[in-house]
Amino acid sequence: MSRHLLFSKVRNVAIAAVAVMALAPMARAQDTIKVGVLHSLSGTMAISEVSLRDVVMMAIDEINAEGGVLGRQIEPVVVDPASDWDLFAEKAKQLLLQDDVAATFGCWTSVSRKSVLPVFEQHNGLLFYPVQYEGEECSKNVFYTGAAVNQQAAPAVQYLLDEGFTRFYLLGTDYVYPRTTNKILKAMLEAKGVSTDDYREEYTPFHHQDYQTIVADIKEFAAAGDTCVVSTINGDSNVPFYKEFANQGLTADDVPIMAFSVAEDELRGMDTSALVGHLAAWNYYQSIDTRDNASFVEAFKAYCEANGLPGGADRVTDDPIEAAYYGVYVWAAAVEKAGTTDVDAVRTAAYGLEFDAPGGAKKIDEVNHHTWKPVLIGEILADGQFGIVWESDGLVRPMPWSEYTSADRDCDHVNHDGTYMKAMAP
């Protein structure tokens, strides 16, 4: 395996040894390197973000078990912004100014990322963001280890078009990620010849629970045939939405749902028997059949069981979990390469970094802080896993600015001499 991220050592660490260190209080010492862990452990987004905290802690413990970074142990500072977007900014400021962290791993929703972004830019902090997002952003203070629109939403809609679907119901949670993603997707659909009469757009608040009226509207809209739902619902609202979808007799054979924020971890809290055949687009699935991925899945299950985490050995991995996990290793590798935790030096060291993640080879782009990734489309199986039905031909280069809405923008923070410049706009 690639030595860039020291992933070979992950395979050599005994699971039991990792488990002993997991989540145990770490001795404070002047020679530790502090990092922030900024994920909601309560509130509407806890259904998704708790697992990201868990896997970040696992990665830190693995690295510490192998001697740490630059010979120093990593000390995680875990905070709970509680799905409160203003609190995200407060906690980010605390991590940077009070705790003096070298890097932060966190956020899920784009509204949380947008809330902390000015803090990281003002104080020159470094955030590793592990979740797919709407693009239209490129900060030198963020490394985006999740997908851009051209690595998830756009190829997913192209897949639906290729499968013969002509009518699209765009349903999302009411915040920046769904609205901006759907703005891009509407432009894409129109560019592909889909009439404005053949798509519909609807949004619900965070933690929305009553989908009876909306599902009835989907059912009426789908009566014309060849209809699919493109879902950007986030958080615990996914549970009542899928339940109501099944309650009204809709199945994947009638109206398939293509989701961008439902993965194996969310499916743990759902009755998947009625969800078989519905779709999701990601860049990783637990079902990827490789030795490296099997080792990763086994290690995460053992970690959760050994530390008494909810679900224990029944826990699953998914795309954001993998991206959060290797984000820690990207940072660690860049620190080792730079020989320092200095933010500007680490940033430069990360450019072009190639590595083997659990789901396969990936790369940090040379200039735009995003990650080259494969694109995978899967269908839900009865056991809550995904069967892969389509995949890209190799890694897809990230395009932060969509070709359908912002193709004339750039995202190059690097001059030829290695210095930085802000993203250029027309």
Descriptive tags:
single chain; 426 residues; alpha/beta; Rossmann fold; 2 domains; seven-stranded mixed sheet; five-stranded parallel sheet; 15 strands; disordered N terminus; disordered C terminus
Mean pLDDT: 90
Strand content: 15-25%
How far apart the termini lie comes to 42 Å
Largest sheet: 7 strands, mixed
Number of strands: 15
Indicate the CATH architecture of the largest domain.
Answer: 3-Layer(aba) Sandwich
**Widest beta sheet: strand line-up:** 7-6-8-9-10-14-15
Give the overall form.
Answer: globular
| CATH topology (fold) name of the largest domain | Rossmann fold
Short description:
The protein has 426 residues and is of the alpha/beta class. The protein contains 13 helices and 15 strands. The strands form 3 sheets. The protein has a 7-stranded mixed beta sheet, sandwiched between helices.
What does this protein structure show overall?
- With 426 residues, the protein is α/β, with parallel strands linked by helices.
- It folds into 2 domains: 7-147 and 286-375, Rossmann fold; 150-282, Rossmann fold (3-Layer(aba) Sandwich), CATH 3.40.50.
- Helices cover 36% and strands 16% of the residues.
- It has helices at 7-12, 15-21, 46-65, 85-98, 110-122, 153-162, 176-191, 212-221, 238-247, 264-267, 291-306, 319-338, 343-350, and strands spanning 33-38, 74-79, 104-106, 127-129, 142-144, 167-173, 199-204, 227-232, 257-259, 279-282, 354-357, 360-364, 371-372, 376-380, 386-391.
- The protein has a 7-stranded mixed β-sheet with strand order 7-6-8-9-10-14-15, sandwiched between helices. It has a 5-stranded parallel β-sheet with strand order 2-1-3-4-5, with helices on both faces.
- Helix 3 (46-65) runs parallel beside helix 12 (319-338) and helix 4 (85-98) runs parallel beside helix 5.
- The radius of gyration is 21 Å and the shape is globular.
- It starts with 6 loop residues before the first helix and ends in a 35-residue tail after the last strand.
- Mean pLDDT is 90; it is low at 1-29 and 416-426.
